[in-house]
Amino acid sequence: MKNRKFLINNTEYSRENVLIIAELGTSHGADPVKAGELIEAAAEAGADCIKFQIVYAREILHPNTGEVELPGGKIRLFDRFRELEVAPSFFAEMKEKVEKKGLIFLCTPFGLQSARELRELKPKCVKIASPELNYSALLREIASYNLPILLSTGVSKLGDIEEALSITDENLGINENGRPPVCLLHCVTSYPAPEKDYNLRVLKSLASVFGVPVGVSDHSLDPCLVPALAAAMGAAVIEKHFCLSRSDNGLDDPIALPPASFAQMVQAVRGAEKAGSEATIDSMCREHGKDLVESVLGDGIKRLAPSEKANYTRTNRSVHALRNINEGEIIERDMIACLRTEKILTPGLSPSWEEQIIGLKAKRAIPAGEGICLGDI
Question: Which domains are present in the chain?
């Protein structure tokens, strides 16, 4: 079984095996002590790479986007994201801890400010989350850093991926194979994601169509089924959320793997690498049943998964009004932003329209937070 390696521009971090990422996200709750415990536990469980997220709520969504139900009751989603904001010094400290373990520090920015703060940390590579796949300004910014990019492709269509790669091609240094150092991470943007939605044969399709390494960002609950089969399908990278306990209060902790389960996943992936594709599939069929394994492998055609279809255009970025825009008012830069629509707002134009609508006149009043559509200008 062969996988196309995701090369990181430093021989210290070159690996023959599948790169396994422990996505800590915001499980640390802005507590450096807990973050240190997570790093230690993930390292012991066999992670190669530890990933964080630099969160600024205003870079992600509008305050009017709606509420989320949490154990303590409803809270504005915007306010929940604000609780996750920490100073850049926090990530500098975490990077040092991760690299002292001999592991790769990875981080996801969600906007231009967080991207530039990440660049100051001098990371070896950068991760872009699925909802930002169409955020053209962020893609251009990240690509200009000339770092390897992990690009998640959840809640996207083939054309969305092609457009994103066209942006990185224009702005990122070309490697010896004639393509930029980008790895596409197949993903199902649902929490949790049903294993049957993964269609893992799409990994070979994506690698063939785009000529880049591929992997999986897995949100399913089973620790081994999707990761082991992804390795069998040639994944170069596997990412899984990591927590100390699923009962912790991180946003993604309910679908993350605690240490023992993560170690089980690592063992399954390493076993799949050694056994090869056919032997791994046979083993999974014996353990889980042929029908389930075949449904997880799918037909290899890239399409929106059933569990994420409703998120398309709502999770992705679009142009939104930052404040009330009056009828007849000229739209200026500080009036708009490319945000996730999420809960109760209406999606707007694609981020590729962001610069084009500046200077145009609002045809009608646009409430704060709403997406800006062609009929509004």
Answer: 11-297 (3.20.20.70), 313-376 (3.90.1210.10)
